[in-house]
């Protein structure tokens, strides 16, 4: 082989390897680094006594800090030599509830999965398109299926807990879930939060084949909702 061509070939191969490594890194690193954006829990510190009756028609609103309406997920990522927790969330939420005689008789929230956000734009795209397939399943929802007694919810800006059962639908698959909710009557608002343990396989959520890390099967759904009278 021509001695002049040999360094050129070696240099070309090295450049190809470098570019390939960079291409893989730009896909994997943004998808699987950083803790993401987690939906917080109900915070009663700035709450004031209730100024409206609990009975009535309620709708999801944006809320006030720190109780801004948000829904998200938290899972562990299993790397070859490490495990880390990653979260994503969205404030794209619609919903309503009906309370009669201090009993929650109906309730539904719908989550815009196309607006899920972590802390990295490239990861956001992969979470939406590759993991939750939002082009085919743009929304997730939860609908209350059993009446809930709210008569123990105080009106003095303190937190109570209630058990809520309903149907959770993600990627077109529905499962019944039951969870303990923290509930707070705050001025003219009603705020609630919960963490629902889920197994992603129950909802058809798979780890994309191109991903080096694997997502743990068990994770959680994080919910913080503020509502006002409709």
TrEMBL record:
<dbReference type="InterPro" id="IPR036761">
    <property type="entry name" value="TTHA0802/YceI-like_sf"/>
</dbReference>
<dbReference type="Pfam" id="PF04264">
    <property type="entry name" value="YceI"/>
</dbReference>
<protein>
    <recommendedName>
        <fullName>Lipid/polyisoprenoid-binding YceI-like domain-containing protein</fullName>
    </recommendedName>
</protein>
<feature type="domain" description="Lipid/polyisoprenoid-binding YceI-like">
    <location>
        <begin position="57"/>
        <end position="228"/>
    </location>
</feature>
<dbReference type="InterPro" id="IPR007372">
    <property type="entry name" value="Lipid/polyisoprenoid-bd_YceI"/>
</dbReference>
<comment type="similarity">
    <text>Belongs to the UPF0312 family.</text>
</comment>
């Amino acid at each position: 082989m021509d001695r002049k061509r040999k360094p050129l070939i070696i240099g070309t191969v090295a450049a190809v390897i470098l570019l390939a490594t960079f291409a893989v890194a730009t896909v994997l690193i943004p998808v699987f680094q950083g803790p993401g954006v987690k939906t917080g829990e109900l915070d009663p510190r700035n709450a004031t006594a209730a100024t409206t009756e609990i009975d009535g028609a309620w709708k999801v609103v944006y809320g006030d800090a720190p109780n801004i309406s948000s829904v998200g997920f938290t899972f562990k990522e299993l790397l070859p030599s490490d495990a880390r927790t990653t979260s994503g969330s969205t404030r794209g939420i619609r919903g309503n509830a009906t309370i009669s005689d201090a009993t929650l008789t109906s309730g539904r929230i719908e989550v815009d999965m196309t607006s899920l956000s972590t802390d990295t734009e490239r990861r956001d795209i992969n979470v939406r398109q590759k993991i939750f397939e939002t082009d085919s399943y743009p929304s997730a929802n939860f609908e209350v299926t059993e009446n809930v007694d709210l008569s123990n919810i105080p009106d003095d800006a303190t937190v109570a807990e209630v058990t809520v059962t309903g149907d959770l639908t993600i990627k077109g698959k529905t499962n019944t879930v039951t969870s303990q909710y923290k509930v707070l009557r705050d001025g003219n608002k009603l705020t609630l939060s919960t963490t629902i343990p889920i197994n992603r396989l129950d909802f058809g959520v798979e780890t994309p084949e191109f991903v080096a890390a694997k997502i743990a099967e068990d994770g959680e759904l994080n919910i913080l909702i503020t509502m006002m009278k409709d």
